[in-house]
Structures are given as structure tokens and as C-alpha cells.
Amino acid sequence: MATAAVAILKTSFAKAVQTGVPVSFFKVDDPAKVPGTPPGEIGTRSHFEKLIKKPSDISSRSPLQDFHGIITPSDLHFERHHNGVPAIDPATYKLVIHGMVERPVVFTLADLKRFPGVSRIAFLECSGNFRSGKEELSPQDICGLTSQSEWTGVRLSTLFREVGVRPGASWFLAEGGDAALMTRSIPVTKGWDDAIIAYAQNGEALRPEQGYPVRLFLPGWEGNTNVKWLRRLELGDSPWQTREETSKYTEGIRDGKIRQFSFDMDARSIITFPAFPATVERGWIEIKGLAWSGRGKVRKVEISTNGGKTWAIAELQEPVLDKAHVRFRYLWHWNGTETVISSRVTDDTGYTQPTMQQLLAARGPEMGGYHLNPVTGWLLKPDGRVLHKPESWR
Amino acid sequence: MATAAVAILKTSFAKAVQTGVPVSFFKVDDPAKVPGTPPGEIGTRSHFEKLIKKPSDISSRSPLQDFHGIITPSDLHFERHHNGVPAIDPATYKLVIHGMVERPVVFTLADLKRFPGVSRIAFLECSGNFRSGKEELSPQDICGLTSQSEWTGVRLSTLFREVGVRPGASWFLAEGGDAALMTRSIPVTKGWDDAIIAYAQNGEALRPEQGYPVRLFLPGWEGNTNVKWLRRLELGDSPWQTREETSKYTEGIRDGKIRQFSFDMDARSIITFPAFPATVERGWIEIKGLAWSGRGKVRKVEISTNGGKTWAIAELQEPVLDKAHVRFRYLWHWNGTETVISSRVTDDTGYTQPTMQQLLAARGPEMGGYHLNPVTGWLLKPDGRVLHKPESWR
Fold first, then answer.
1. pLDDT at A27 over 60
2. Is residue B285 one of the residues assigned to a domain?
3. B158 shares its domain with B182
4. What is the pLDDT of residues B97-150, one digit of tens each?
5. Which of B10, B66, B131, B153 is the most buried (most CB within 10 A)?
6. Hey, of A24, A71, A329, which one would you mutate to test binding to chain B, going by the most B CBs within 10 A of its CB?
7. Each residue of B323-352: pLDDT tens digit?
8. Are residues B93 and B162 in the same domain?
């Protein structure tokens, strides 16, 4: 910066301080030449970072291609609502547990927080998390209905003991306090296993879109069963056959039959870089992405850089957690010729992510739009464009 | 809700939709009776949650007593600046590495992101993270200058190989692009060991207050050495003796001597509940808090509920990560009589968090205000108040 400019700057700055004009109002060449913004009550995202969830009427999707690591920022966690986000006052919030129990109980939020707590980093994925059919789709478009947080709450098993679940109770109904009164029937075994009545996410209270003040969290199970704005649990001896488990959230199988209660999210992976809309240059490329399984831990992720002919093992970022997104990385030298790259995961049950052909062969042409986890391909063009490759699944 | 009220509500709502008035404008008894807010481009914190960092001129503090789990929300990460937050354009950002290297290199942000990456959940703590002297202090007041994120970037060792660090180079200077030109000398061994040139935090780009677009991250080392807005690394064969390692960030020891380059943060723990300003009732209380060590993993946390006479083992929330905040929990029945509760951590080097008497005995009365990690006590009063207990250290 020229001396004259510095002199002008100094004068301007002194004037700014006197008049209360923010220093940032004055353009400067070097941020190191002016005092910066002082500490604040709350931080902000840089205005250079444009991160949005691309909302539709009923959902919004995490921008997976923009993420690093495994934590999803809470304000970028995907959304899927059945009648919008209700405004619930935590001071008047109540959760009732009744039905086949010894002692029906109404819990306040303060009651729930007094019980011994548990925290767990785990993913949450919508069972309808699949889109395809054209080249210009990003990871967010294709499978942005998955996100990961550290969830904190009380184990449902603790509350089951508190209310005294009766021996014959085999299912419970979870009801949300949204305008859809979202309801799902859940096997009691999941409640005893690892279900959490969650009141916190990534260190702080749940965000409103994620069920504030309290949601059900069922590690590894399809998103809609993780009922948000949870207000009622009823214990019973059979499922309730609610709308969301009869007309919705079921899958066609062969011979005109329908599969209900397909809770577990199957293992899946996606390369998030390079991926549309990024462009790449020939040379060394670190292929990066996310892999997860609703049934346990990721055992391995394999990468193909030749359209599925051969596969090589990717590096997994520690810690590899149970029922959690894992970051994988694979260093690859691209010679600039057109090729298709893809990833596939194997979980610790031995299950390997299928191709779309394998999915179709197993479930039949009426399989519908839920629980689709096919291997996802990216076409690298010699000009550096990266396009989604629906063809690789047909 | 009475039928008449519902009718009025429906009319109001229809009108609201027609006129564009937000539905939330109309007070309703039951959020389940009106459509909620649709999905958005970006989430928000509930307006019922008031979380602030209590800024001073030079710092702001994480509200530890409000946190759950181990992740600090990025906008609540503590701040400690030496001349405010500079506004740096990522498109023009550059990092130069020079000095005792074979090939001085200027890296852009895009360059840094092309290298193989690494992610790690780890704490960051200011070496001046201590306040005491009165009863009405919260965990935020006492030690809110510690926070935890998942950090992502390129290993400094990778860049060291890229520039060809010369055999004789034993130190490097890290210089920030803030108006203080914050500079610290760091042993090259730390660069080869686990230093990260970080560009992301909790899944997204660094927040401006945390060094956007790039900071040095030195796992376990005192906060100020993790130079933010990093613009220059110079390799050399001795420390630079900058202001921040001579007049500041040094500690008095015995015989009028000064200790320099005390990088490692010693193991520490604090009970965050119950803690001021919370109040408690007699009965079962889950004592909760955070423990960490800059030298490795937390091996155990012990809890005393009788002023330090006896200690019992707390439960540690998995995963227990290296150089990371760990959440501990201890279920205790309080009979309502006045008592002091406290925690102490032992790390995997065998080091146990000292009392203030032990710190004074080891370092002498001129030890100053840095690297103070004493056992912190909370006085429970029969009326349910919880007060900080400075007396327990004297």
C-alpha cells in the first residue's frame, strides 16, 4: 500500500472510530493494517461461504459436497417434515408414556434432563434419500437427506424402567407434536437396545427443525421413525398400522407384495469430491466421501476409477463409529481421460452396497423409492467436468 | 381448545395465508393445530435458547454449563484475539512457507485443499483459561476459554515434504494476518508430529473468529500457538523470541526465573453440572462435566462429593479421543446437606490434575496466570444454590 493511501486510511479510521462507522466500511488492501472485529456474543459464518439446503415444500438437503469431516453443522442438517416445524415452548413441553406400563408418567423437559444422559455421534437418513436420472446432480441432490450429529439425551430404556413396561408389551407408538401428528410403531426391543430420547444436538439444544425440544433418536433406523417434537409414547402388543407405515414408508417387493417396517438403513457410500458441480484437473486427486451403515460399523470402502472393473481400498478416517458417517479418502492420479469413479462400502455384518442392477434383481421392478442405496458413479470428462452417471446403474 | 376458539383460529389462519401474515403471529394453544414452518435454506437456533459468549475486549468464553456432549457449536467457540478478526478474502488468501527450505512456496487456499486431508476432533484451550476469587462464577467464567471442534485440513508434515524442510531447521515461525501480526515460534518436531493447517471446523469452513480461511492447529498445545489467519511459516534454527513468547505467554517459576515455551496444556477437568448458576434439589443428581489433556487421552476422572476426602470413578462417554474433551458422568444421591463436589482427571501419561496448593507448591508464588488447571470445587448449599468454592484451593 502506498504511503499516501496509508495516511488516508489512518485518517479515515480515526474518523470512523470517532463517528461509530464500522471500520469494515472503509476498503483496505491489507486486513493486517486495520484493527479487526472484536469478540462477540455469538459467532457467524463467513459471508464468503454460501451454504444452503435447497428446500422443497417438505424437505431440505444437506450440501454434502461442501462438507469436511463427519459432523454436519446443525443449521445444515437435512429436514423432512410432514406438516412443518411446530413452535413448542420448552417450559410447557410434556412427554407422556402410557399404555402397557405399570405407571403412566408425564415428563417435563426438566424431568428428562435429570435422568442419566448419553451422547452418541450417529447419522440420520431419510428412507427416501435417493434421486437420479440426469447428469447435473450433486451429492446434495442425490443423497442430501442424510446428516450426522452428536446426539445427547436419556436412554429410552431408562424411561422404560421408570414407567415399568409390562412383559407383554412388544411395540410402542411414537407420536410427534407437529400438525401432522406424525406417528410410527416401533418394536420395544429397539427401545431397550439403543433408542435415545434426545434433547441436544452438537452440544446444544436440538434445533427447531430437528424436533425441539425433544425427539426420538433410533440409531441406524430410517429417518421418519426418529419422531420429532415427541409428545407421546404408548406401549402395546402390536403395531398401530398408522398412515406412515401402511400407505407410506413401505416398499413393493415381488409378486405384488409390500414390505412394511423396513427400519434399518442399509450400508451406503458416496463420493463427495470430485462430484458435480466441481471441476478437476488432471494429476493427483484425493477422492473423498462419506460411508455409513445403519447396521453397525463401516468395515471397508472400495474405490473404482475404471467404471467398476477393479476396486482398491480407501483410507478411513478414525474414529470409525457405529452407525455413523465415516469419511473416506483415496489418493488417485488422473491422466485426463474420460472415466467413471465410484465407491462401495462393506459393513461389519458383511453386507456390501449393491449396484442398481443388483437392487432391481433382489427386489423387483416394483421396489419403489425407499431404501435405495446403489453404488453412485461420477463421470470425469476430459475437460474437467464431473457429471453424475445414472447409466452405470442400468 | 374450545370449539369456538378453533373456529376463530381457522379463520385467522386462512386470512393469514391469504394476506401473507406469518402464522406464528397468531397465538395458538396447541402447535399441533396449525401448520408449522416449512423447510428452509438454513436452520436457526430456537429463540428460547439464549446462548452467548460473554465477550470482553479481547476474548469471549464458551458457555460450558449449557453444553451437552463434546462438540462445541462453532458460533459458541471461545475467542481470544490480539487485534480483532481480520476480514480475509479466500480468493486472494495466500500462505507462504520459506526460510530453511529447499523450495519456498506460496500456497493458495485451493492449493491447500488439493493435498490429502485429515480430520480430528480435539480441544483448543487458551493458556490463560483461569478465573477465580468469588462464589458467583459459572464454568464459563472459570474456564470458558476451552472449546472443541472437528478440525479438518492438511497435515503440516505434508507441506514440509512439499517445500523440503532442510535438516538443520529446528523451529518455525507462524505468523497471522491479523492486525497484531500474531507470531509464535514452534518446534519443527510438532510440525512433523500432528500439526494441521486447518481450513474447516465442524464440517464447514472455519468461522472468521477461528482464523478463516486458514489457521494452524496444534493438538493439545496452548491456544495462542494455534495461529489464526495464518499467512506465513518461516523455517529456522532457533526461536524468534517474539513478543508473545517473551513478555507474554511465559510463567514465573522459582528463584525469579521465567519459563518459556510451555506448549502442552496440562490435564484438567471441571464439573459443569451442578455448577453456578444452576440450582439443585436433594435426591439423585447426575454430576456431569468435561475432562481433557493436551498430552494424550483421559485415563480416568474421579469425583469427590465430600470436599476431597474420598474419590470415586466417573463414567467416561465413549469415544475417548486423544487430546480431546471427554464427557464424564457420575450418579450421586444428595441428602441436602452442605458439601463440596469436585472432579480430578488423570491422563494416560499418569499425570493427575493438581489442587491449587499443589500447583503453588510446585511452581511458587510467582507462577502468574497461565497454565493454571487446579481442581475446581462447587459448594452445594442446603437451599439448592451451587457456588464456586475458591476456598478449596487455598
1. no
2. yes
3. yes
4. 999 999 999 999 999 999 999 999 999 999 999 999 999 999 999 999 999 999
5. B153
6. A71
7. 999 999 999 999 999 999 999 999 999 999
8. yes
Q: Are residues A93 and A215 in the same domain?
A: yes
- Confirm whether A38 is domain-assigned: no
Within a domain: A287: yes
Q: Which grid cell sits at A267?
A: 450400508
Looking at beta carbons, which residues of chain A come within 8 Å of B108?
A: none
pTM over 0.80: yes
> Which residue range is the domain that position A16 belongs to?
3-33
C-alpha cell at B322: 486423544
Provide φ and ψ at A189, rounded to 5°.
-60, -35
Same domain, A85 and A187: yes
A358 Cα to chain B: minimum distance (Å): 33
Task: Tell whether A67 and A185 lie within a shared domain.
Answer: yes
Residue A22: predicted pLDDT: 53
Q: Would the CB atoms of A43 and B200 count as touching at under 8 Å?
A: no
Give the end of a domain, one of A185, A216, A249: A249
Is the CB of A60 less than 8 angstroms away from the CB of B69?
A: no
Distances from the Cα of A251 to the Cαs of A87, A129, A246, B48, in angstroms? 33, 14, 10, 40
Buried b (16+ CB within 10 A) or exposed e, B13-26: beebeeeeeebeee
**B352 lies in some domain:** yes
Cell of B333: 444421591
Contacts of B329 in chain A (CB under 8 A): 116-117
Which of B215, B240, B259 is the last residue before a domain boundary? B259
User: Does A70 sit within 8 Å of B150, measured CB to CB?
Assistant: yes
Interface touch B44/A288, C-beta < 8 Å: no
Answer yes or no: is pLDDT of A12 > 80. no
Which CATH number belongs to the domain containing residue B139 in this structure? 3.90.420.10
Asked if residue A154 and residue A29 are part of one domain, the reply reads no
Answer for the pair B224, B125: CB distance below 8 angstroms, yes or no: no
Domain count, chain A: 3
A303 contacts on B by Cβ (under 8 Å)? none
Dist CA A202 CA B289 (whole Å):
16
In angstroms, the separation between the Cα of residue A314 and the nearest Cα of chain B is: 12
Strand partners, B18: none
- The residue count of chain A comes to 394
Q: Grid coordinates standing for B127?
A: 493458556
Q: Which of B357, B225, B226, B353 is nearest to B291 (CA)?
A: B353
The distance of B263 to chain A (nearest Cα, Å) reads 24
Give chain A positions within 8 Å (CB) of B24. Answer: 87
% of chain A at pLDDT higher than 90: 85
Return all residues near B135 (Cβ < 8 A) that are at least 6 apart.
Answer: B276, B379, B387, B388, B389, B390
